[in-house]
Amino acid sequence: VHRDIKPENIVLNHNKQAILIDFGISALMHDEEYEKSLNTVGTYIYYSPEMCVKRKNSSGKAVLSDGAKNDLWALGISFFRILSGRYPYEATESVEELKKFILFSPIDFGLIKNESARDLLKKMLCKDLELRAQ
């Protein structure tokens, strides 16, 4: 699990293959530490819907979200930005407003011209965690 996927952390090697860099956040933290630090690390625009909602179990302990599916969402947001030149959500100064966009606003996949890429992004950016690509 990477935990900070964004275009700035994707580079091309000499064979033009995409490589993820900057594993600093994931290498230093365990899942519980990471969940506690969500207000200070990572990049909010790449947060998955489930990261925008704090869930607790019956004993009041935070329920951890699936790190791999969070990474898949962030990769989808990154691809969307690379392919369309913009983010799928409105720019906002407020983290709470951004979370509302992520949770409730539809994504305009029409901005992605390539049909195969658009179909892949629809699977990667499915707001329903159970239906999201794996």
From TrEMBL:
The keyword Kinase applies. SUPFAM superfamilies: Protein kinase-like (PK-like). Residues 1-134 form the Protein kinase domain. GO terms for cellular component: nucleus. One of its GO terms (molecular function) is protein serine/threonine kinase activity. The keyword ATP-binding applies. Keywords: ATP-binding, Kinase, Nucleotide-binding, Serine/threonine-protein kinase, Transferase. Signal peptide: none annotated. It comes from the Eukaryota. This is Protein kinase domain-containing protein.
